[in-house]
């Protein structure tokens, strides 16, 4: 049976935390919305209709609700 030393356990915990915590980070919703608006504006200025509607969800229905 493997006997873990206190230092070994602490090192293992630190390594697990270092590996897991970056996965918890994500772009805030406000930043995602601003980026989508900027991309739509740029696509509209370029005349790329397909890129204008790209950020919309599949169930977007416009003014129809």
Give a summary of the structure in a few sentences.
This protein has 65 residues and is an all-alpha fold.
What does this structure look like?
- The chain has a domain at 28-56.
- Helices cover 57% and strands 0% of the residues.
- It has helices at residues 6-20, 29-46, 49-52.
How many alpha or pi helices?
A: 3
Spatial extent as radius of gyration? 23 Å
Strand content: under 5%
What's the rounded overall pLDDT mean?
82
Overall morphology? rod-shaped
The total count of strands amounts to 0
- What's the SSE pattern? HHH
Question: Mind sketching the topology for me?
Answer:
Elements lengths: L5 H15 L8 H18 L2 H4 L13
Give me some keywords for this one:
rod-shaped; mainly alpha; single chain; 3 helices
